[in-house]
Amino acid sequence: MDVDICRGLAAAIFKDASKVKFIPLTAKERFTALQSGEVDILSRNTTWTMTRDTALGLNFAGVTYYDGQGFMVRKKLGIASVLELSGSIICTQSGTTTELNVGDYFNARKMEFKLITFAKTEETVQAYENGECDAFTSDASQLYAFRLKLAEPKAHLVLPEIISKEPLGPAVRQGDDQWFNLVKWTVFALIGAEELGISRGNVETKRNSENPLIQRLLGLRGDLGRKLGLDNDWAVRLIGSIGNYGEIFDRNVGKDSPLKISRGVNKLWNMGGIQYAPPVR
Ligand SMILES: N[C@@H](CCC(=O)N[C@@H](CS)C(=O)NCC(=O)O)C(=O)O
User: Per the confidence metrics, is the pTM higher than 0.85?
Assistant: First the structure.
């Protein structure tokens, strides 16, 4: 999903979804890379927190996936709850909110634990696979992804507790409001498009719609693309390249992907979820 957001931005701005350069970053490296200008957007399952939004000099442009932290264990441990993990060894990645939340949760319950952290995901997964830790913790979406990479996915269980809020979304550096607006309204346009029933497949025909909300988003009324510093077809290119929010979700992590994660709170606000975009007008 993070990659698609960047491709969509490139389509909206440069009229070509391939005009984007991806630089992979570890959790630790990512903020310095954005602060120093090595990257212009950090789109990499990053949790929107107060410190990152203030002291680290970032601006979060929205939430593309409402996640939360979970735990995975080997089924043969016979554990059914995080509350049974007292005295265990837990593996996770350094430089993440994940690392911090474990301490909060276990200390508050006077549960003993030993945390082993790694710089890279592959190392963390490997350590868990080798049996160096009893549990593996990360954003729940990641647990489902990592489980598929294990030698025997069915031998592992994701425990029911979600111990934190992890609103994930793209961030930019503070100090460039136009760029911030572009990323922000790209995310909103994707959510708005789903609400209005505009998809990758029908975006061209929707340009004939009489609905003023659709007309505004697709640049036929209101001159809104220009207010963003683009042309009025920006959202047509955006949706035409990567689809609406629901399509991006389904294709990458949802029902059309190997992960089959349910939409949950990432459903639209009028479908029982919390994904909501302000009006395009
Ligand atoms: N959402 C959390 C965790 C982000 C994170 O980096 N998680 C690790 C897994 S625990 C990850 O995504 N690794 C991917 C990678 O390093 O390629 C945060 O922003 O701190």
Answer: yes
Same domain membership, residue 245 and residue 185 = yes
Domain range enclosing 139: 69-164
Looking at the domain assignment, is residue 271 inside a domain? Answer: no
Please work out whether the CB of residue 141 comes within 6 Å of at least one atom of ligand 1.
Answer: no
CATH number for the domain spanning 214: value is 3.40.190
Q: Based on the fold, state whether residues 76 and 146 are members of the same structural domain.
A: yes
Beta strands 69-74 and 166-168 are: unpaired
Max alpha carbon distance in the chain (Å)? 63
Which of 91, 138, 144 maximizes ligand 1 atoms within 8 Å of its Cβ, making it the mutation to test the pocket?
138
Report the nearest atom of ligand 1 relative to the CA of 166. 1
| Residues 71-108: tens digit of each pLDDT | 999 999 999 999 999 999 999 999 999 999 999 999 99
Secondary structure element (H or E) that encloses residue 121, with its range: helix 121-129
Quick check: CB of 96 below 6 Å from ligand 1?
A: yes
| Kind and range of the H or E run holding 45 | none
Residue 36 is predicted with a pLDDT of 97
Q: Please give the Cα distance from 166 to 119 (Å, whole number).
A: 20
Tokens 């789903």 belong to 194
What distance in angstroms lies between residue 113's CA and the mean position of ligand 1's atoms? 21
Q: Is residue 137 lining ligand 1, measured as CB closer than 6 Å?
A: no
* Cα–Cα dist 202/67, whole Å: 30
pLDDT digits (tens, 9 = 90+) for 157-212: 999 999 999 999 999 999 999 999 999 999 999 999 999 999 999 999 999 999 99
Q: Are residues 26 and 47 in the same domain?
A: yes
